[in-house]
Structure formats: C-alpha cells, structure tokens
Amino acid sequence: MDGRRHAAELLDFLDIRPGMRVAALVVGSGYTAELLARAVAPDGVVYAENPRIVLEASEKPWSERLAKPAMKMVVRVDRELDDPLPPEAKELDLVVFNLVYHNTIELGIDRDRMNRALFAALRRGGRYAVVDHSAREGRGLSDVTTLHRIDEQAVMSEVERAGFRLFTKNSFLRNPSDTRDWDDGQEVDASHHGISDRFALMFVKP
After folding, report:
1. For residues 48-61, b (16+ Cβ closer than 10 Å) or e, as one string?
2. In the chain, how many domains are there?
3. Torsion of CA 90, 16, 24, 99, to 10 degrees
4. How far apart are CA 48 and CA 62, in angstroms?
5. Residue 117: how many CB atoms within 10 A of its CB?
6. What is the residue range of 91's domain?
7. Partners of 133 in beta bridges
8. Cα separation of 70 and 42, whole Å?
9. How far is CA 129 from its chain centroid?
10. DSSP-derived secondary structure for 70-133
C-alpha cells in the first residue's frame, strides 16, 4: 500500500519525529498507525483509536498487527468518535485523520464535539492533520454517502470552528485529472486505485 498511499510523502507532511506523542483516528487494521509508530520510535507513543463499527470488520487484522514488535509504542483505544481519546492522551504533538474524516458524517458523529475534544488533547502549538478524498468545489457534504468524498472547504470550516487555525496545505496527493464524480469508496476498477484527488490540510492549536 505504500505506493498508492504515498507513505514517505505523508510522513514528510506530518513532520513526525522520534519521541512525539501522537493520536490517529479510525485506524482500521492499522496501516497508518504502524507508519506513525515506526516514526515515533523508540520512545514516542501513538494512541490508535477505532470505533465499535470499524472493529466489527477489522478486529482480526488489527489485533494481528498490534502483536508486531514495531507496534510496541501503540496504545489501543476502543472509543467512539464523539469523545475519541482517553484522559491520559493529553499534551499531544499531533493528531492524524487519514482518509476517513468523511466517514464521520455517515456515522452521524457530533463533529463539533469531536474536534473540540481533539483541540483539548493537543498541546499549544500541537497540530491536527486531515487528509481525505476531495469532492468537487462547492459540494460541501453532499457527496459523502454517494461518492465517499468531502469538500475541502467544508472540513476547514468545521475544524476551524473548534478553535484551530489552518497552518499549511500540501499538494502531494492532488490529481487534477480526477473528475471527482466516481465513488472512491468502491474504486470502480483497478485503474482507479490510489488516484483520487485528495487534499492534505494541517491545522494548529494556537
């Protein structure tokens, strides 16, 4: 998955380093969580959250991945997204939402509450990264359930409402040739794997 997920570029964008305290939301079977764990080793920590509905499908591969030596600094977090992190996850350096922010709309999550909780968990100057599949400009949340895409501006508005400020954007996942009118959740055929236009936003807690 490294190639189509652009793993090296993602880690560069996150500017993640050994010793950092990090949280990752909706990690599924743990691909992104392992990337983060390897990057914060040997003495960092990654709080890796999954809600119940995701664990129904990913419990087995997630448990198997957690058994790997590379995952020893990962703290498994089974919590719902309205209040995604345990009390001890404080003064974090970074929170990562990789390709799944749009799913919070489908799940009916109180995103204002969620984003406020993430704001509280970060240290001052801590960062919040949101990477997701891009809907066409102006579509807002309209394409979330049909195309598994979300309007970049809609994400910015929600996150900034919690007190965050946009720090930077990165274009390493952009694909101007993507028509953004097909369902990225299904990836209609092999030729579409990993080619959706995606935005990468980095916010900061002032």
Report:
1. bbbbeebeeebeee
2. 1
3. 140
4. 10
5. 18
6. 2-204
7. 198
8. 9
9. 7
10. GGTTEEEEE--TTS-S-TT--SEEEEEEES-TTHHHHTT--HHHHHHHHHHHEEEEEEEEEEEE
Q: In this structure, what CATH number is given to the domain that contains residue 148?
A: 3.40.50.150
Report helix, strand or coil for 11. helix
Q: Write down the residue that tokens 């990752």 correspond to.
A: 24
Which two structure tokens, joined as six digits, stand for 124? 């001052």
β-bridge partners, 94: 22, 127
Residue 95 burial (C-beta neighbours within 10 Å; 0-12, 13-18, 19+) = buried
CA torsion, ordered 26, 118, 38, 125, to nearest 10 deg: 150
pLDDT one digit per residue (tens) for the chain, 206 residues: 656 678 999 999 999 999 999 999 999 999 999 999 999 999 999 999 999 999 999 999 999 999 999 999 999 999 999 999 999 999 999 999 999 999 999 999 999 999 999 999 999 999 999 999 999 999 999 999 999 999 999 999 999 999 999 999 999 988 999 999 998 665 544 445 568 899 999 999 99
